[in-house]
Automatic annotation (TrEMBL):
Membrane association type: Multi-pass membrane protein
Keywords: Antiport, Cell membrane, Membrane, Transmembrane, Transmembrane helix, Transport
InterPro entries: Na/H_Antiport_NhaC-like_C, NhaC_Na-H+_Antiporter
Domain Na+/H+ antiporter NhaC-like C-terminal: 72-211, 235-419
UniProt family annotation: Belongs to the NhaC Na(+)/H(+) (TC 2.A.35) antiporter family.
Protein name: Na+/H+ antiporter NhaC
UniProt KW Membrane keyword: yes
Length: 441
């Protein structure tokens, strides 16, 4: 296997960012002490001072290339539409009606687990965790404000459900990237992946019930208007039908605004103002995404990602060690890139080489890539999922992490699957199937 050269110093901007953003919060006990935008701007400045062989303009152009990556721009558009939809639906009374419906139907101890399950269905259908969080976060905020359920717990449930679908959906970028890089079948990867993470989903649901069982607040459900709930229903139905997330959110904006205009909640002027306010509320998140994308491109060019790849693979000596190597490889890369799809695309070819050399079934290697990238993505406080949830909730991303049961548990069960060699594959049956497929072609 060819050794990949890298440069550990290239990771310095990421270390600076984490030291400022996370470190200052730990030291002071206040994670708002250091604004995240300031922390990432300092890290970007550090990145631009590195690699003296290139001119400043060359490095700025490289930064712009990363900041303008299609994945980053699509994510930014999702954030913009999510903000507009959230504020539009809220302004015409959708949140209040939805919360009151939930309070009237579900016992309070099942409200949060309901968010987790609904989030799982939406993300399975939409194939995107950020779109799912954008759709459910306002409802989670409303439920928390009407009960004594901690907002961080409610948001963690939404993130958990979103990561469930991001990991398993057949239209998710992570699934597609894992399947393509490992040259396996979508259906086969889903089966292996599903049985590894199913116990994590079940335990997460139980934990969410336990953590909300002691909720003693006596909140009586007020009246609700079914019509005002329709924007959220429309988003859910469209998501379950497999529509593109951008079309789902854009349709939700039009639907919510149309209802508001008809029932008098909005005039045309107040409708457009609500959209503008929602978009403005996402400005920090948009800037963060662009800045982090540019910084990661510089880190990658300077050899930071290659350094991680080399460090994670040089001591592999056994099949289990190789599987742990694949898991560690994609996890460390995800910590650096803050994007699970990019981390799979980056490490996938090397993971395929490792899998081939140590006779790891390609269904297993694809599942490991997806599971551990989604686990890390659901936990890092500077990832899009945590940032968008924290933006809606008005809390620090750090406060959500202790309740992020599902992202933690899928890593735990991924490790268990490696240790007990689960699942055990019928290689003869798979070989026969591959032969049939090759003949049919």
């Amino acid at each position: 296997m060819e050794k990949i050269r890298g440069n550990g110093w290239a990771l310095l901007p990421l270390a600076v960012f984490l030291a400022l953003f996370v470190g200052s919060g730990i030291i002071t006990g206040d994670f708002y002490k250091m604004p995240v935008l300031v922390a990432v701007l300092v890290a970007v400045a550090v990145a631009l001072t590195m690699n003296r062989k290139d001119s400043l303009m060359t490095k700025v152009e490289r930064f712009a290339k990363g900041a303008g990556h299609p994945d980053i721009i699509i994510m930014v558009i999702i954030f913009i539409l999510a903000g507009a939809f959230s504020e539009t639906a809220k302004g015409m009374g959708a949140v209040e009606s939805t919360v009151n419906l939930a309070l009237s139907v579900l016992p309070q101890s099942f409200l949060v687990v309901g968010l987790f399950i609904i989030g799982a269905f939406i993300s399975l259908s939409m194939g995107t965790s950020t779109g799912t969080i954008a759709a459910l976060a306002p409802i989670a905020v409303g439920i928390s404000s009407e009960t004594d359920i901690a907002i961080s717990l409610a948001m963690a449930a939404v993130i958990g459900g979103a990561m469930f679908g991001d990991n398993l959906s057949i239209i998710s970028d992570t699934t597609i990237a894992a399947v393509r890089t490992q040259q396996t079948d979508m259906r086969d990867k889903f089966k292996v992946n599903f049985f590894i993470v199913l116990p994590a989903a079940i335990i997460t649901a139980v934990l969410l019930i336990v953590f909300t069982m002691g909720n003693q607040s006596a909140v009586s459900a007020e009246s609700f208007n079914w019509v005002k709930i329709l924007p959220y229903v429309g988003v859910l139905v469209a998501a379950l039908a497999g529509m593109n997330v951008l079309a789902v959110l854009a349709g939700g904006i039009v639907f919510a605004g149309g209802i508001g205009l008809v029932d008098g909640s909005y005039t045309l002027a107040t409708f457009t103002k609500a959209m503008t306010d929602g978009i403005s509320g996402m400005s920090e998140l948009v800037m963060l995404s662009i800045l982090i994308g540019g910084m990661v491109e510089i880190i990658k060019h300077n050899g930071g990602i290659h350094f991680i790849l080399n460090a994670m693979t040089k001591n592999i000596t056994s099949k289990k060690g190789a599987e742990f190597g694949i898991a560690g490889l994609v996890s460390a890369t995800n910590l650096s890139t803050a994007n699970n799809t990019i981390s799979i695309i980056t490490t996938g070819p090397l993971a395929k080489n490792i899998a081939d050399e140590y006779n790891i079934d390609k269904r297993k290697s694809a599942s490991l890539l997806d599971i551990f990238s989604c686990s890390v993505q659901g936990l890092i406080p500077y990832g899009a999922q945590m940032l968008i949830a924290a933006e809606f909730a008005g809390v620090s991303p750090i406060s959500i992490i202790p309740y992020a049961f599902y992202p933690i548990l899928i890593a735990v069960f991924g490790i268990i699957a490696i240790l007990i060699n689960f699942p055990r594959f019928n290689t003869r049956k798979q070989h026969s199937r591959n032969m049939k497929e090759s003949y049919s072609k």
